[in-house]
Amino acid sequence: MKTIAHLSDLHFGAEDATLAKHLAADVAAAEPTVVAISGDLTQRARTHEFTAAKAWLDTLPGAKVVVPGNHDVPLWNVLRRAFAPLSRFRQILESEPDPVWSDDGLLVLGVNTARSGTISGGRISPSQVACVRAQLETKGTGRLRVLVAHHPFAPTARHSIVAGGPSAIADFADAGLDLVLGGHHHVPFAGDLAEWHVGLASTVLVSHAATALSPRVRGHANGWTRITVQGHRVSFDVREFVAGKFRSATGASFRRTSTGWLRA
Questions:
Q1: In angstroms, what CA-CA distances link 23 with 99, 106, 194, 238?
Q2: DSSP bridge pairs for 110
Q3: Nearest Cα to 60, choosing from 30, 86, 27?
Q4: Looking at the predicted structure, is the pLDDT value of residue 63 above 90?
Q5: Considering the chain, what is the average pLDDT of its residues?
Q6: How far is CA 256 from CA 107, 144, 197, 203, in A?
Q7: Cβ atoms within 10 Å, residue 252
Q8: How many angstroms separate the CA atoms of 112 and 148, rounded?
Q9: Residue 42 pLDDT > 60
């Protein structure tokens, strides 16, 4: 069995320190194979915020796949925002904003959708799509193929799909993508992208994680999503922080069939 700990929107600089300790303990108890962080590790992309995020991540077990979010691009420093938007992210957290990690059962690809020219929205470029597709096709055989991005490929009332997302997800489905992990919403959700993307070549599952540590919970508790992969089954356990502890809030399970992923 493989376990993916999906965390998002940590927002160090506005985090609850006590909650951070509880979260680290709950993630560690899951013994994750890999921890996937889908962006917004900081509140305002300041050096001390990245340093705090790095120190906290170092306490977690498992491999790490970390991508930036729009909050990881400086807002007030116009020159840095224009010419070196991810310099602090690269220097402190992750040198490669489009990271790749794999083992015998998982292929996890990160893609940077944060852009210096926008305040909140993101974009995935044609060159990124081509690169992800090539890796799905060449490295994905026999593995569950996972994509990690900050901006969503499924909309909510507050946010639309990432720019370039509809054509990108069609390409990724054609290349065999199984699961996309995202954040930005601060709203937890696990399901099937077919609800928003009609006519995909294959089923693509989706996990949106709640904000892990930010007080901007938007009607939902702070939390994260534990994803377990066992044989031809993928299960989602949305963990919420309620009354001083983490608990399972909602869940969903899917099994792979000859026609795609079906809710189990």
A1: 24, 24, 31, 13
A2: 148
A3: 27
A4: yes
A5: 93
A6: 17, 11, 19, 9
A7: 17
A8: 9
A9: yes
Is 113:97 a contact under the CB 8 Å cutoff? no
What pTM does this model have? 0.95
Query: What is the per-residue burial (b if ≥16 Cβ within 10 Å, else e) of 220-236?
Result: bbbbbbbbbbeeeebbb
All structural domains of the chain with their residue ranges: 2-263
- Helix 126-139 to helix 165-174 angle (10° resolution) is 20
φ, ψ dihedrals at 224, nearest 5°: -155, 175
Query: Can you give the pLDDT at residue 178?
Result: 98
- Residues 69-96: what's their mean pLDDT? 80
Q: Which amino acid is at 31?
A: E
The pair of three-digit structure tokens given for residue 165, joined into one six-digit string: 């997302």
Confidence of residue 82 (pLDDT cuts 50, 70, 90): low
Q: What angle do CA 33, 34, 37 make, to 5 degrees?
A: 155
For domain 2-263, give the fold.
Purple Acid Phosphatase; chain A, domain 2 (3.60.21)
Q: Quote the pLDDT of residue 31.
A: 98
Count CB atoms within 10 A of the CB of residue 91.
12
